[in-house]
Amino acid sequence: MTHLPFVAASYALGVLLPSAYAIAAWQRMRRAGRRLASIPRVRRRGRSPQ
Amino acid sequence: MDATISIAPRGRNLHRFANPGRFLRISGTILPWLAVPGLVLTVIGLTWGLFYSPADWQQGDAVRIMYIHVPAAWLASAGYFALALCSFVSLVWRHPLADLAAVEIGPVGAGFTALCLATGSLWGRPMWGAWWVWDARLTSVLVLFFLYLGHIALVRAFDNPERGYRAGAILALVGAVDLPIIKFSVDWWNTLHQPDTITLTGAPTMYIAMLWPLLFTTLGYTLGFAAITIARLRAAVMERRISALLMARAHEVGG
Fold first, then answer.
1. CA separation for the pair B160, A33 (Å, rounded)
2. How many domains is chain B built from?
3. Is the minimum CB–CB distance between A48 and chain B shorter than 8 Å?
4. B164 and B155 Cβ atoms separated by less than 8 Å
5. First-last CA distance in chain B
6. The pTM is what?
7. Chain B residues within 8 A of A31 when measuring between CB atoms
8. What domain range is B89 assigned to?
9. Separation CA B229–CA B77 (nearest Å)
10. Which residues of chain A are within 8 Å of residue B35 when distances are taken between CB atoms?
């Protein structure tokens, strides 16, 4: 294969950069989902037992 | 009066999708349908392009960089168009999701623009003998990259996020003038960068065995870009909800 270092570097960037974005987005989404699920819901105004 | 009649119903329709619960439900359904085909198409396209597509008679195997460079270049422009569109919706209809979408598109678009510039440089070195030339196409894409960085910095530069969103939206709309410059730079000026080989109006001037893997990677990367943006947007919506819930709890505890 001609120009192998240039082709290999391009493919490495083309795979690693979008993968890094995808993994970061997925982890952020999971973290936010877990945190949201762990917060107990606030009682709505007017429905308090008192 | 006429303006109120024509704009208000559309604004109301748009605001139906501003409900966080509805957005999370719809986006949760759409996300796997973008991510999985995006990944499959990208893997097929990259494998095809790297191992099975023919080498160019003039450029040799360096032409295989095209299967990454062209989708990245397309997404750099398309991402900015989406950013400008969200900014327009945000400024005109004050749509809260449009603000968040613009904030989340920015870093992804900047990443793909950086990928376009880097792969272009890696392609230019063996073909032109230079990593970089101040060519109209390259320079206008570099300006696009700086516009993305400016937007990312500006929306985070204010204590009041609403002011940051407004300033970022204005920058995004003003910067949209760079998109036609990028598109037509190879026609308007005598550039080292080659003219478009795929256009909407004419038949592609590319060999079909090279065109197919390029279409696969372009579609795959586009679906991937959309999936990453929606995942980031879902996270942002949930983070905003967490802040609102914690605030409400603090008020409840405080009396």
1. 25
2. 1
3. no
4. yes
5. 45
6. 0.89
7. 235
8. 63-194+204-254
9. 15
10. 22
